[in-house]
Every structure is written in structure tokens, then in C-alpha cells.
Amino acid sequence: MLRHSFKSLILLGLTSLASGSVLYARGEDIAVGGKWKAHDQITAFQQQASDGIEGEIELRFKPGLNDGSGCFPYAAVDKDGFHGEGLRPTGKSGGDCRDGTKGQLYARVGTSNGRTGILYSWYLPKVQNAEKHKHYYLTTVVWVHSDKCDPVADDYRVVGVSYSTGKETYDTSVSGQTLYSSGDSGSGPGNTHAIVGYDGQMNVFPSKDGADYALNPPMISWKKLSQPASEQFNGVQYEHARCPFTDNNIQASLDAAFNANFYTGLAPEADNCNAADTPTPSTPATQPEEPVSSSPPEATPSTPSTPTEPASDPTTSTPPTPSTTDTGDDDLIEDGPEIAASSLPADATYTPTP
């Protein structure tokens, strides 16, 4: 009887394998130091942007996520370097992973082809598309432009948005359909925050709905992660997933998401401002020389010169008049259709600063 049952299990496994629906154990994900925790026990970082202009544009263009089905975003790694162990991709697509208070948004600024992009990514503990596996990242890259020297955040405007369609692929053709909101936490005026849509599959896309119910978890910049957290991101080995913002992956991610058409007709970004701001002294015009006579010069009686009165008192110095230049900024012009400004849900529950 036992032998017959064992034989039946083998046949069942072969049948499942032939049909492509067999689900293997997901034990091949390897965390640094074996540091795993339950996916809902990972405490998110408090919102922290990079220092300086990078942090300002990270906040100014921070997107919201309309998550219609599947898992909500969760924090992947905590301040001590523990990684969420994920969930088996069984049951409902959003089973055990629809807690809107556990999320985290990861941000990292970089360049591709001399253009500035801000990569934003959400971690999911499972994805139940055709692949069905633990761990997944949804990613969007917001491409911005400013042609000013030493720009401030207000000088940048969105020129395009790329949406991830897989681990290493992006759709740049739908950028023009992106809706924008006024954002959260007073992070910037105007509609500068893309509203991203997700429906439980592998890809994200421009949301067709407003930001009234968009998820807006706290954003943590790569540069503000604790050392144990960044080491875990750089070292974890996923069986199927790929983290797009690690030191080894960030450049390839930006290059894959880049589309030169976003910058058609736009000047290169100013990267040599000091040289551009330094005036080049003008060269005086060369006066033609008098022809040299071959005959000896005639003697001319000298006439005492009449002293001229100086134009100003040499003992009195006149301070130079400072020059003024009007460098008024242009108003921000946002691409994409305007929508009514709305108040997004508050950030997730406050957590201690790591």
C-alpha cells in the first residue's frame, strides 16, 4: 500500500512537471549571515532623504502607488540587517501581505547618458504571476532635467517616467500617460509626484486613478541606510528576484530604463559651471604698425608739453560699482495632465530612527 502511494506521488510530480505547474521549494534565497525575519516583522526606516540637492529631488518627485491587487509593499531589510523571509506564492495573490503600515520606498539618484534619473523601488514579499516566487521589486525611474548651473530642486522638471516590466526591463513608451499629484508631507509645490499603478502582476504602469487612495510609505535614500542594511542589500542572493538599486545593479538599471527621446531638443545638463561663469578677458584689437621710412628722421625741435589737468583727484579712490545680473528662474512646467491636488494618506506609522 505504501509502495503504491509513493509511486503515485512520483507520477503526480512528473505530471505536474510536464504541465509546468510544479512549485519547487524556495529555499535557495541566501541572506547575509542567514539573517531572516518574518516579512511582517521588518521595521521600516523613518523617512530620510539624501543630503543636499539629491535629497531635495528625491522628495520632490517621490511617487505614490495605487495597488489594486497582489501584495502591498513591505520593508525588505531593517536597520540591523535582517531581511524579510518573504511568503510562499500560494493562496490569494494578496494573502497575508496587504498591511498598508509596513511599507517602505527605496530611492537612489544616478545618471545614464549624462542625464539624471531617480530610481524608486518597492519590495514585495511574493509575486503570484506565471513565475510564482518569493521576493520581488517594483521599480519606476523618474527622469528630470535642468540646464542651470548649481540648480535647486525647483529648477528640475520631469521629462519622462520609466516603468519596470520585469527584473531588468522597463517600458518607456507610456510615460506620457502619467498622472501627477501634489505629494505628501509638504515635499514640494505643484504636481510633481507620479501616480504609479500595480495590479498583482510583474509590471507597474501609469495609474488611471487619482492619488486619493495611493500608498505612500516612508522613503529611505540609499545613502541613509544603516551599514548592516546596505550590506544585506549588496550581499543577499535571491533565487529569482533582483534588487535594482544595489551598488552592483544601479547603473545597469538606469541604463535599461533610459530613453533618449525624453530629452529630445533639450540642452545637455550644465556640468562645467565654474568655467562657464568665468568671463574670458577680451583681447585688444591690434593696431596696424606705421611703415618704417628708409630715410633718416628729421630733427624736430622739442616743444615743452602743456600739463593736463587730471580727470579726478588721484588722492581720492572711487569704489567700483557692483554689477547686477537678473537670474530669475522660470516657473516649473509639469508634463502630463493636471489633476486636482489631493491629500495622500499619511506616511506609515512612525518608527525610530535607526
UniProtKB/TrEMBL annotation:
The keyword Lipoprotein belongs to this UniProt entry's keyword annotation: no
Biased composition (Acidic residues): 327-337
Keyword line: Signal
Residues in the signal sequence: 1-20
Keyword Signal part of the UniProt annotation: yes
Region of interest (Disordered), ranges: 271-354
One Pfam family hit: NPP1
UniProt biased composition (Low complexity): 275-316
Annotated PANTHER family: DOMAIN PROTEIN, PUTATIVE (AFU_ORTHOLOGUE AFUA_5G00600)-RELATED, SECRETED PROTEIN
Listed name of the protein: NLP3
Protein source organism: Colletotrichum gloeosporioides
